[in-house]
TrEMBL record:
The keyword Signal applies. It comes from the Bacteria. Residues 1-28 form the signal peptide. Belongs to the short-chain dehydrogenases/reductases (SDR) family. This is NAD(P)-dependent dehydrogenase (Short-subunit alcohol dehydrogenase family).
């Protein structure tokens, strides 16, 4: 795909690992200048360095988006070298909790890290897009927003908030040239997910090799029509599409990339 991103500048939050690193790498490969954000300076700089080594344009911006000061630092660093045309709100975490053990503080923290973090970046970056009459705002949501289970209730609720605010933002940006959408992944194989599933495997009898473990895990935890977990590059491909001019008539929508995990007319 030629996503037609040459000359655009993108900020990808939570790009020091996982989906964000894949998204930043893919945007840079399509010609965008990328601001790679993370909290961990070494991991963040490592992703930015790998993009530069491959011939792309990337700088690092470090900060905790669960705080106003961190968001100010990240926005300041990102905007120092030029405007941001594409904002991908991807930063987030999903510590394993259930209804039985998630405290009020866990719920509050999930909301700070997964929802208000993105709102902070919207507040700092979208006014410039609006002034220039072009922009793309993309939330990384998730299937648990639409089809939650009993586990991870706090996390699932924050995903639903991301989906919801993306639609509200699209309405707010009516006629401005700035679109707002959500990419909703299913279960995607990032390092943290692989570690979690590998840890469950012996107790559940899922086998010894990764292909066996993945097949059993997906059948039991997130069954879908493709029969495997998604890969970070498959989420990045959806972000590429929504980031470019080919998606100029797409706003307020959710693009599910989940192998058919989520059922129904969502
Ligand atoms: N993997 C999946 O199956 C899946 C499915 C649906 C949705 N998602 C969503 O995709 C996003 C990325 O997840 P991932 O699976 O790629 O996980 P990951 O590898 O753990 O990446 C999470 C990223 O978010 C950053 N981050 C976490 N808390 C932050 C904070 N307070 N301030 C700033 N940055 C923070 C991390 O930065 P540092 O490491 O530098 O601290 C890291 O770059 C998350 O929002 C998650 O909800 C993932």
């Amino acid at each position: 795909m030629n996503a037609q991103l040459t000359g655009r500048r993108a900020l990808v939050t939570g790009a020091s690992s996982g989906l964000g690193a894949a998204i930043a790498t893919a945007l840079a490969a399509e010609g965008a200048e990328v601001v790679v954000h993370g909290r961990d300076p070494a991991r963040t700089e490592s992703v930015a360095g790998a993009i530069r080594a491959a011939g792309g344009g990337a700088v690092a911006a470090v900060g905790d988006l669960a705080t106003d000061a961190g968001a100010d630092a990240v926005a300041g660093a990102a905007l120092a070298a030029g405007p941001i045309d594409i904002l991908v709100n991807n930063a987030g975490s999903y510590p394993h909790r259930s209804w039985r053990d998630a405290t009020a503080d866990d719920w509050r923290e999930a909301y700070e890290v997964n929802v208000i973090s993105g709102v902070r970046m919207i507040q700092r970056v979208v006014p410039g897009m609006r002034e220039r009459g072009w922009g793309r705002v993309i939330q990384i949501g998730g299937g648990l927003a639409l089809q939650p289970g009993a586990e991870l209730p706090h996390y699932s609720a924050t995903l639903a908030a991301r989906h919801n605010l993306a639609v509200s933002l699209a309405r707010e940006l009516k006629g401005t040239g700035v679109t707002s959408n959500t990419v909703s992944p299913g279960a995607i194989l990032v390092d943290g997910v692989r570690r979690f599933i590998t840890g469950l495997a012996p107790g559940r009898g899922w086998g010894e090799t990764w292909p066996e473990i993945e097949r059993h895990a997906i059948e039991e935890l997130a069954p879908n029509d493709v029969g495997r977990m998604g890969r970070p590059e498959e989420i990045a491909a959806a972000v590429l599409y929504l980031s470019g001019p080919l998606a100029g008539y797409v706003t307020g929508t959710t693009l599910r990339v989940d192998g058919g995990t989520v059922r129904g007319l969502h």
